[in-house]
Model the fold of this input.
Amino acid sequence: MAVAETKRAIYEGTRIPSPIPSVLQVDPGLREEGDILEVNFGPNHPSTHGVLRLIVELNGEKVVGLQAVVGYLHTGFEKNMEAKTYWKAITYPERIDYVSFQNNELVFVLAIEKLLGIEPPPKAQWMRMLLCELNRIHSHLVWLGTAALELGAISMFWYCFRERDAILDLFELVGGVRMHTRYFQAGGLAEDIPQGFYDECRAFADTMEKRVDDYEALLSGQAIWLERTKGVGLLSAEDAIALGQSGPVLRASGVDWDLRKVQPYLVYDQVDFEVPVYPNGDVYDRYKVHMDEMRQSTRIVQQALHGMPEGPWIVDDRKIVLPPRHELHTSMESLIHHFKLVTEGYRVPEGEVYVTVESPRGELGCYLVSDGGPKPWRVKFRAPSFVALEATATCMSDALVADLIAIVGSLDTVMGEVDR
Amino acid sequence: MREPWWIDVIKAAVIVNIVMLSFAYATWLERKVLGRMQLRYGPNRAGPYGLLQPIADLVKLIRKESFSPTHAIDLLYFAAPVVAAFTALAAFSVIPFGGVWEIGGYEVSGRVADVSIGILLIFALGAIGIYAFLVGGWASDSKYSLLGSMRTAAQLVSYEVSLALSVLGVVIMAGSLSLVDIVERQQETLWYAAPQIVGLLVFFVAGVAETNRPPFDLPEAETELVAGYQTEYSGMRYGLFAMAEYVNMITLSGLAVTLFFGGWSGPVLPGPLWFVVKLALVVFVFMWLRATLPRLRYDQLMQVGWKVLLPVATLNAVVTAIVVVYA
Amino acid sequence: MSSLQGVPGFVEEREDHGETTVVVELERLIEAAYWLRDEAGFNFLSDVAAADYLDWDRPRVAGYWGDPRGRDINSPGSWGLQSQPAPKPRRFSVSYHLLRVESGGGNAPRLRLQVWCEEGEPVPSLVPVWPTADWHEREAWDMMGIPFEGHPNLVRILMEDDWEGHPLRKDYPLGGEPVRFSGEE
Amino acid sequence: MSPQPFDSLKGFAVTFRQMFKKPITQQYPEYKRPVYPRFRGRHRLWRHENGLEKCVGCSLCAAACPADCIRVVAAENTPGNRVSPGERYARIYEINLSRCIFCGYCELACPFDAITLEAEFEISEYSRDDLIYTKDMLLAEPVKRMPVADRDLYDTPTPVWKAES
Done:
């Protein structure tokens, strides 16, 4: 079987459907012929990443019309957070995107810290970066496993979940639970890093590189994989920017853009890593970006383990941070602070901020408005998956049913984050 | 003394049961092989090494409610799995698994029926089986099933051609359409896997497609069409479809062993055992493919079938014919 | 950045926490958006965030009380007064978070474009300027009830089609099932 | 990169190789992987060594709970009925575990280390009502003992509320 090179070159101009940028409408002439089959893909379908519903209109096997319907997992996180103190609200964002939980937690905590005007100590910064990168590997592994499964490469799923489980073990070691750790607190980390973590994490980082080679051996050279992914789901750089795409989707369209580089937060400016960029904007390039990012994240993890500074892990500000436990029994002032912080929470100065981080899925933003009280007035998350789904109609032109699955998979959406 | 008719009946009953049992254990083997390739144990709870798992599955499938969609076309909907299973089982009857033995004064041959056009019979039965998939999907009145049926029709029709042509080389070399003759001819010379390597490859690829096995499992591509033509089937009706698929795989592996790997022939061990060992190896390759390869796309499948396999198979037949005639 | 005063319909410019906010007149929002995209180079619309400032300047309290039946999360207790925030011009704000994306760009300049509107007052849709505004504006309509004029497909996105009310408004009560306990007193 | 003709076969080697490795599956009900010392499982209420309850009914845990799943009703200690060393004790202490998100804020909030989250994670029940844990259930020794990894190895420095209880 001949290996296909890119069959369709990236197109000129724009392909965003008009008038509605997120809906692919059937050509009226085609509809009059009367052979259009309307199929509901989802909300219950094996490969819709949860509860995405795609109303697909098919002409034979060809996708001629497409509309994505979301909202089946809407849980009102933003409304709920308005009724919780900041301290408690930290447990919410990680449940929004349950695959890249640590990054979601980070963006909310960074927003609070920006309003409070506090800077966490270096150890907390490095540890946050380390955990976020582990979380990025975790998220990419989940993506790779499920996306490959959708294209029929079933074994990949198990290999990916082996490493995913190792990462979750590390989270359990550090934060106490495997997924929603609430380990990042305003001002730093909830607890000190346990000593055993360093060795375990180093052992993991050492094996991870070999594992990525295994994944590549299984897929990258595989003729069928190339046939299925090359030239499919094209998205030009201009269209990607106009549609607000970010993260791996944008980088696979040839835009060298990574918030960790262009707008360094935490201590990303002190570590050495590269931003993978691929020019074709097809499913294969998105896959390659994910693979390369896993390697780069492993590099960052190793550097972070090496460069982890000593010192306190949370700021020493009694108005924001719970006082040390041993003071509760000896210091009346600490006990009062403890009671005030737990019951009322800390007050965050009035203002509005928009903080963004590079989550595994792209630009994750948090718009936070405070009225000066202990509860957020308004929280709004800019969910990269939500935006990524807007691009389905543009990517989908001239696609078959099988491509539809590949394309939606390659956009890497998590429905919890889309619907919030 | 030639075989009386009642020996044939006994043999048929025994073989049908053995094939059904081997279907059950093919599912077990598949789960074990896939499990080990995917870092798992596979079934290991029901019985030692999970050996009772197929029985448990059978009990589960039989006890499960077999519901049907309201608008399904009843007769066709119910008949389709039966036809599929029947043709699959019937096709195995012409595959020889042993030589001829003397038992109690009777000559008992290691095949249910020695048909002089065995290969053609297998293909003919396979073609009828296609109708079952096609009709079953259409009759269940579901869009996914319909799409699955369409894919089945297109895929099986295109690969049937390559499959038949790939065998032509063997037929020319053996000079017979009877499977027994072909095996015996291989015993005299050498396994046709060597001279007919191209034919073998085409046969194998087309065979994988013909049996809807990954990476050619488009008609039931779970992540695209939910389960294709069998979406609306449940309980033992689904079980019959699954059985048809696995029996087809076993039959095809048996055919591959017969045509290319010398059938039951082999040193020391008795013929049927050799046959089973070779069969298991071919079946293993089927499972290995499933563990490793992603699924093809519909148009690529058509391209592979018509633009690669068909010309290669034709060329192979022509070259073989020229060599046989002039050498 | 006094150059921002050239934005059509310029009302106000704020620097806060290192973020620049430009408030423009509602009527000239599209003009301002085109200007910011084409003249200032903000080619990337990151987010459209609407906020409801109903009762923003009402004297407020912090914290809430619990009682044996659970907690009334809609009416706060009187734990202690907090300071009064600065008044807002209208009830709703719509903030467009803009970003300049350049391949290999050295930094990421951001800008918040903000308009203020009253309830039911239509806001011009920015879908022609940034196509990505499509779903963001639908979400703002769904959650906050801000009608976007000229939007090609302004229907609910997260809630069901026949949902009543706009859940993220401040006057929309926080519902939910009470937490079950044993009922023992 | 241009794919080599035999790259497609590399994948077969990968899958074949795995057959000879030990599976990574853990045979769960028989084998339980020790949880790490910081693991947050089911709650446990503690007593002092003299048998009095550590909880003084201050309701800080209920205030800290993001899921509102803790209910505390306090009562006064009397000389005849002394339950806790403080002035008051928790007459009713209930946790609705079907609501709990295991964030561990209650153990952070408790100033007396009276409540901690322990290693137990097998807490499924057939009825929602069975998941409402009362004070007696929380005070009792857990029926199932979960293995915990070596604390010296994995949890130094130990958080105070785990060290003392």
Summary: Chain A has one domain: 77-316+345-419.
